[in-house]
Structure formats: structure tokens, C-alpha cells
Write a structure and sequence with these properties.
- By secondary structure, the protein is α+β, with helices and mostly antiparallel strands.
- The chain has a single domain (about 5-175), classed as Porin, CATH 2.40.160.20.
- The protein is built from 2 helices and 10 strands; from the N terminus they run αβββββαβββββ.
- The protein has helices at about 5-30, 110, and strands at about 40-50, 50-60, 65-70, 75-85, 95-110, 125-140, 145-150, 155-160, 165, 165-175.
Length: about 180
């Protein structure tokens, strides 16, 4: 395996972040010309194994994209998800959703890797992988707020080759 310097790892993370940001920006511009779901967009806090800031933008009445800027293992990650969202039969304000996406992150090696020999390391590592998500989201009728509960397994394909199970509660302020 080839050694990657921390400088090139930071460049890789920066480039992945920029690609995801511009994808979301162009998707948001496109979404303004299509129908929206229960709300147009929402931003809020996500608390779980990976905790941070969540932004969700509807592309049409059933499809949304979500970006999660999260922190874990003394580092940061950016996750992009495409989600298919539908009403439940219980309430028109309660939706379920499923989706998939990808993530890229940079973490301190001693927290990220489970190898005992790496516990004293101060190097950063970049992890890139795939994500899935399934969850439910409740839109409060009289105030522009949603509460979401999701289960998001993810797998690192670069630097780690590990599987993780993430569950979280997300609270978002919504825009119509």
C-alpha cells in the first residue's frame, strides 16, 4: 500500500467537499423549478454516532438530497445522501424515507483505527465510503420544524474497510 502524505489527504477531503457542495448548489437551483415535498428545505442539528449539521433539500415531491457535516474520531466528515420520501398511512405529517449516498472524512488515526499499534499516532487519515439510510420524519404543523429519527449504516472503502451502524435524531428548521 502506498503512503499518502497528510497534505494530499487534506486535498482529497477538500476536493470531495467541494464536489458535494457544488452538486448540492446546482441541485438546489434545479429544485426551485420542480415541485417540493412536505417543505422546500431544512437545516438543523443531528445527534447520533456521527453528530453535526444536517441540510435537506427536496428536488421534487418524493426525492430529496441531504448533506451532513459531522464530527467523530477527532475529525470531520461530509456525507451526501439521496432520499426517497413518502407519507405514512398513520398521518400526513409523518413520512418515511430510504436512501443511499457517500461520505468522505478526515480523522485522527489513533481514534479511527482499532489497531493497537496506531494508538499513539498523531497522523490524520482520510476515509471514503458508501452510506444507506432509512428513517421517519415528523413535520410539526404549526411551526416550521421537523423531527427525524434514522438508521444509517455506512462502510468505509478507503482507509479502514470497516462497517458502522449509526442511528440519530435530527431536528430541522424548515423553509417553505
Amino acid at each position: 500500500m502506498e503512503f499518502i502524505s497528510p497534505f494530499s489527504m487534506q486535498q482529497t477531503f477538500r476536493n470531495c467537499t467541494l464536489i458535494l457542495f457544488f452538486s448540492l448548489l446546482f441541485s438546489s437551483a434545479f429544485a426551485q423549478h420542480r415541485g417540493t415535498g412536505p417543505y422546500t428545505a431544512g437545516i438543523g442539528l443531528r445527534g447520533g454516532f456521527l453528530y453535526g449539521i444536517s441540510y435537506k433539500q427536496f428536488l421534487n415531491s418524493r426525492g430529496a438530497i441531504e448533506a451532513i457535516l459531522g464530527t467523530r474520531w477527532q475529525g470531520y466528515s461530509l456525507t451526501g445522501l439521496f432520499e426517497y420520501q413518502r407519507e405514512t398511512k398513520f398521518s400526513e405529517d409523518l413520512d418515511w424515507y430510504v436512501g443511499f449516498g457517500a461520505h468522505a472524512g478526515t480523522y485522527e488515526e489513533r481514534y479511527f483505527l482499532t489497531n493497537v499499534a496506531k494508538k499513539n499516532s498523531s497522523k490524520s487519515v482520510v476515509a471514503i465510503g458508501v452510506d444507506a439510510v432509512v428513517g421517519a420524519e415528523y413535520k410539526v404543523v404549526k411551526v416550521p420544524v421537523t423531527f427525524g429519527l434514522d438508521f444509517k449504516p455506512f462502510m468505509d472503502l478507503v482507509n479502514g474497510n470497516q462497517n458502522y451502524l449509526d442511528a440519530a435524531l435530527t431536528i430541522r428548521y424548515t423553509f417553505n
